[in-house]
Amino acid sequence: MSLIISQGCSANLSESEQIAGLLSKNGYDSENVIVLNLCTVKGDSSALKAVRNAKENHPSTPMLVTGCTTPELIASLKKIDPKISIASTHALERIPEIIKKIIAGETVFDLQKEHSPKLGIPKIRKNPIVGIVSIAEGCMDACSFCSTRMVKGRLQSYAPEQIVNETKTLIENGCKEIWLTAQDAACYGFDIGVDLAELVMQILKKTKGDYRIRMGMGNPRHTLSYAEKLAEVYRDERVFKFLHLPVQSGSDKILQAMKRKHSVSDYKKLVDFFYTEFSNFAISTDIIVGFPEETEEDFEKSLDLIKWSKPTGCNRTRFVPRKGTLAAKLQNQIPSLEKYRRSAELTKVFTEVALQNNLKYVGTEQSILIDEIGKRNSLIGRANNYKPVAVHGNYKIGDRINVKVNDAEAFALIAEEII
Predict the structure, then answer these.
(1) Whole-prediction pTM value?
(2) Residue 66 neighbours by CB under 8 Å, 6+ apart
């Protein structure tokens, strides 16, 4: 198998699994090329570091970079080594053909931007019980800080029947968690006359088995338009009571500068609604600190929003200006040291909130699905709201067990099986 290095979101992970499947199907069974499927959403530094590390560890092995390949990243890659081959995120099904050319000594630049459904493609899954299903590509928004629209293009939703068939196949192949993923899952189907709630209802009706669906990240403004329908979907035990709503800031002024098109009030309405509908619902969110013109007061509003909404997870990002985005041209950029300070303060506040959240579960009983290896000889299972639960014992990935929560840390519940 060719060496594949992957970064970024679950959509990128799914594509890496598909690349592995395509290469295996086409007979590439030795490490004769390195494929780096990279993410540049938070800047180029981690992507470029991965490339440099790969060059250092495998100096004579041909290399293909794919994934979120922005013009800025491409320019930097050519400076590292002009012989690095580059393919856009849309070149997935052509990867075997590209690899063949690279092995023959060619340097390939395949930067076409046409869309095709990333479904029905052979996969080698990283986790045997987790099936990642891409439901769309691109998005409907053009946030001022984000390069996703430049890389992925406008929203292209995949046909519900194709997604249902992909899901059926994964469940038949032993998957017990189905992750529905997209750059913005909440606007799935807006371009073809359906929505995410309707899609999940179809999956639930047409597939049987002991599995759980995790819906991917969704823009609050889109989710708000069909929240009540979504609540009906969550009433099925096969759907994790978990929602990822990236608010990005607690300040409406900053949200407007970000061109997010939702308000803090929109986010609060959704949090209130789902917390009211379900007693143990889990919300995850994202916050960017140090956005241009973010004052201390704006930042404090983000901290207050975290304290109020009590998310189970919070992706915390220091603003990085992306070349070609509107935010990179804004005045009053925040100094790096101040961004680091705000990031540290946000982490402190969120960690305290997460711990208090988890302590409420001590003494409760949970049914969990073991889905990964944890730290300190533990295994990690997922409760019905996708909270991670650490256990010790002779279990294997895919086991479902009943446990009692005895303790809690900020990022996991600690439990033991009920005998």
Answers:
(1) 0.90
(2) 19, 35, 36, 37, 38, 86, 87, 88, 89, 91, 92, 95
C-alpha 216/C-alpha 245 separation (Å) is 9
Which tens digits make up the pLDDT trace of 150-162?
667 788 999 999 9
CATH superfamily of 3-110: Response regulator (3.40.50.2300)
Domain with CATH 3.80.30.20 in the chain: 130-357
- Per-residue pLDDT tens for 347-395? 999 999 999 999 999 999 999 999 999 988 899 999 999 999 999 999 9
Per-residue model confidence as pLDDT tens digits over 402-419:
999 999 999 999 999 998
Residues paired with residue 156 on neighbouring β-strands, in sequence order: 137
Which regions of the chain carry the CATH code 3.40.50.2300? 3-110
Give the fold, CATH level 3, of 130-357. Answer: pyruvate-formate lyase- activating enzyme (3.80.30)
